[in-house]
């Protein structure tokens, strides 16, 4: 699993880097999809979970020392990391540690912010003696080689380097927004501004933080201790630490771009039902921006042992078929039609049922004559015979969660069904 690609040089700086994946948040904009799991544990792409993407990026970049910081409803996240990223898969001096909120500093406080989450584990981090610390959000979908970013950090003589992307102004309110002096030096940073500042010479766009930071480790510890002693701080990187250090220290922006055509690289914050639904369905396109079939940059995960997908019955009025669709292992399409959808593992769609423009998470059963359109169906749902979802907005809003763009979220709780499996 962890053999270096012959096309990629693993350098000393990546081997001397410790990656911290911040995975403690709920992701409340995903509504009931995160009622029983943290956002990084949400399934994505047919067989993965969101956290698999930053962890795979680390492995593929040659960063083999990683720690996952957890807090909110972390059981399924912890179980997944143990199964997919356990130490039995790692070589000597390579690891994925789990760092749940442990009240290590005092017995009254859990993680109160992103900076505080790292600070509360500072005694553990010191033992790893890494020269650089790469801090990542555990809830974004993208493929990125962190090696060039760390090399850029070293070349610039930076104390802190921030990964950034260009986003439309209307979306920038959800991000930390920065300005730079034309040579990469960050000279302004504001967290989630009501009126985001526009990029000079690039109307309608703002320069947004990806939540990816490279710190010189000693500098990081100094700033964490300073921040922890500030009673007025929210102990957050975006709100407190970064705005404070940009005037006194060397802070640089690293643009995340596709090196082949020098365009904005693929990156998704699947933080709403609409964006989650859209990002999953993008994958079924002929040439999607996110290529899951890329053998040079694989996404690693826990491989459940499942039989192949099966399509049964070929009668004129009862034909099992899927068109323009991704179907995962263990699925059975039994005399039903699935069109322009993504089915996770162990989904059963029974005869005369139909699924269209929908994302169906694992272990869902769609019973006879049920119809689903423009929906996200959560793990473990059993859709009753004849139920229609996505056809009557009024009825959908009475039973389910309906997004601003009309995507229907269905969970077992909404169907009055007990949660009978780990989320």
From TrEMBL:
Pathway connected to this protein: Glycan biosynthesis; glycogen biosynthesis
Top EC group: transferase
Function statement: Involved in the biosynthesis of ADP-glucose, a building block required for the elongation reactions to produce glycogen. Catalyzes the reaction between ATP and alpha-D-glucose 1-phosphate (G1P) to produce pyrophosphate and ADP-Glc.
Domain of life: Bacteria
Pfam families reported in the protein's UniProt record: Hexapep_GlmU, NTP_transferase
Record carries keyword ATP-binding: yes
Taxonomic placement: Bacteria, Pseudomonadati, Pseudomonadota, Gammaproteobacteria, Chromatiales
Gene: glgC
UniProt binding sites for alpha-D-glucose 1-phosphate: 111, 176, 191-192, 209
GO process annotations (BP): glycogen biosynthetic process
Catalytic activity: alpha-D-glucose 1-phosphate + ATP + H(+) = ADP-alpha-D-glucose + diphosphate
Classification via InterPro entries: ADP-Glc_PPase, ADP_Glu_pyroP_CS, GlgC_bac, GlmU/GlgC-like_hexapep, NTP_transferase_dom, Nucleotide-diphossugar_trans, Trimer_LpxA-like_sf
Location of the Nucleotidyl transferase domain: 19-282
Residues of the signal peptide: none
Name of protein: Glucose-1-phosphate adenylyltransferase
Family classification: Belongs to the bacterial/plant glucose-1-phosphate adenylyltransferase family.
């Amino acid at each position: 699993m962890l053999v270096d690609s012959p096309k990629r040089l693993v350098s000393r700086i990546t081997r001397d880097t410790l990656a911290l994946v911040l995975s403690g948040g709920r992701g409340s904009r995903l509504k009931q999809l995160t009622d029983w799991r943290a956002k990084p544990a949400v399934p994505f792409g047919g067989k993965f979970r969101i956290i698999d993407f930053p962890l795979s990026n680390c492995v593929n970049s040659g960063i083999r020392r990683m720690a996952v910081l957890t807090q909110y409803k972390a059981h399924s996240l912890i179980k997944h990391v143990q199964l997919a990223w356990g130490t039995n898969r790692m070589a000597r001096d390579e690891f994925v540690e789990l760092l749940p909120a442990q009240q290590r500093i005092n017995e009254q406080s859990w993680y109160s912010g992103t900076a505080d989450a790292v600070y509360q584990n500072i005694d553990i981090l010191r033992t790893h003696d890494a020269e650089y610390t790469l801090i990542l959000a555990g809830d974004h979908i993208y493929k990125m080689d962190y090696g060039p970013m760390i090399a850029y950090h070293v070349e610039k003589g930076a104390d802190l380097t921030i990964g950034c992307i260009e986003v439309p102004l209307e979306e920038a309110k959800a991000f930390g927004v920065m300005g730079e002096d034309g040579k990469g030096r960050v000279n302004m940073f504001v967290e989630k501004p009501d009126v985001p500042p526009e990029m000079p010479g690039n109307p309608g766009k703002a320069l947004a933080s990806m939540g990816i930071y490279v710190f010189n480790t000693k500098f990081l510890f100094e700033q964490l201790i300073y921040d922890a002693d500030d009673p007025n701080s929210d102990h957050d990187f975006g709100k407190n630490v970064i705005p404070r250090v940009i005037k006194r220290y060397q802070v640089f922006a690293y643009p995340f771009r596709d090196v082949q055509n020098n365009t904005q690289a693929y990156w998704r914050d699947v933080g709403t039902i609409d964006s989650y639904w859209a990002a999953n369905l993008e994958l079924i396109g002929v040439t999607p921006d996110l290529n899951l079939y890329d053998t040079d940059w694989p996404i690693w995960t826990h491989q459940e042992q499942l039989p192949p997908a099966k399509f049964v019955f070929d009668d004129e009025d009862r034909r099992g078929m899927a068109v323009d669709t991704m179907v995962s292992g263990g699925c059975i399409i039994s005399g039903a039609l699935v069109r322009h959808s993504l089915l996770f593992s162990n989904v059963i769609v029974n005869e005369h049922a139909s699924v269209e423009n929908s994302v169906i998470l694992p272990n869902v059963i769609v019973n006879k004559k049920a119809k689903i359109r423009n929906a996200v169906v959560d793990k473990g749902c059993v859709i009753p015979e004849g139920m229609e979802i996505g056809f009557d907005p009024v009825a959908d809003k009475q039973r389910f969660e309906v997004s601003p763009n009309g995507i229907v979220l269905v969970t077992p709780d909404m169907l009055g069904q007990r949660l009978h499996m780990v989320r």
